[in-house]
Amino acid sequence: MKYLLRIFSVAFCVMSIQVNAQDSTGLAGTPYQETQLAAGEKSPYLLKEWYSGAVRTSDDRVHDGVQLRYDYVKDELEYKAGSGLYRVSSGISEFSIPSGVELYTFRSGYPAVAGQSEKSFYRVLYDGNTKLLKKYTNPIKVEKASATREMDAGAKLYLLKDGKMNPVQLSNRNSFLKLLTDERNKLNYVIKEQQLDFAGEDDLIRLLEEYDSYKAGRGGN
């Protein structure tokens, strides 16, 4: 009997070592089995390829060099470790995926809005005192350093100001200018001088950079 117990004990230790060896990332994800998409079904992954990225957990530890994919439908991060596939649905505050064309940095912890919670991930487009955040609703088919309105049809933009998430649209400049009325005259000058047409996100980012710069020059007033 003791011999059998010793065998089971050794077998359990071996299995534990194998499991730990498979997931050496320290992210403690849940094993996941990928399913095949049905004909015509849209991919739930923002980017179809795997990329080596970094993950910041809620204890402020950074796990770098992890093979990552982001499931924007379930709002979960998927990663590879050894021959295993894992999912993490909680305990992550930020992750970054460099695709070679763009750096995709996602963060959670923002105020709940439009069916999203504080655990929801948003891509951080501009991370100043005022923030520009993006929620994807479709996979990225074509990458470009400055996404246009047409490329990310359905994606939702939010301007975080004074602790509030405000939905904005590139096609409706009043949707964001009304939030920046304290510097509106100067911003109208910037729009004209720099010929900003807001066909892409970079124009709005440039405007917010100018806005934060003006605010900082005034001491935040």
Determine the N-to-C terminus distance: 78 Å
- What share of residues is helical? 10-25%
Order the strands across the largest sheet as they lie in space: 1-5-4-3-2-6-7-8-9-10-11
Mean pLDDT: 86
Q: How would a textbook summarize the main sheet? A: 11 strands, antiparallel
Category by helix and strand content? alpha+beta
* Count of helical regions: 4
N-to-C SSE series? HEEEEEEEEEEEHHH
Strand content: 25-35%
* Shape summary: globular
Structure description:
The protein contains four helices and eleven strands, in the order H-E-E-E-E-E-E-E-E-E-E-E-H-H-H. With 221 residues, the chain is an alpha+beta fold. An eleven-stranded antiparallel sheet has the order 1-5-4-3-2-6-7-8-9-10-11. The longest helix has 21 residues, at 2-22. The chain is globular, with a radius of gyration of 22 Å.
Fold topology:
Blueprint: H1 2-22, E1 30-31, E2 51-57, E3 62-71, E4 76-81, E5 84-88, E6 92-98, E7 103-107, E8 122-127, E9 131-135, E10 156-161, E11 164-168, H2 174-177, H3 184-193, H4 201-217
State the gist of this model:
By secondary structure, the protein is α+β, with helices and mostly antiparallel strands. It contains four helices and eleven strands; from the N terminus they run H-E-E-E-E-E-E-E-E-E-E-E-H-H-H. Strands 1-5-4-3-2-6-7-8-9-10-11 form an eleven-stranded antiparallel β-sheet.
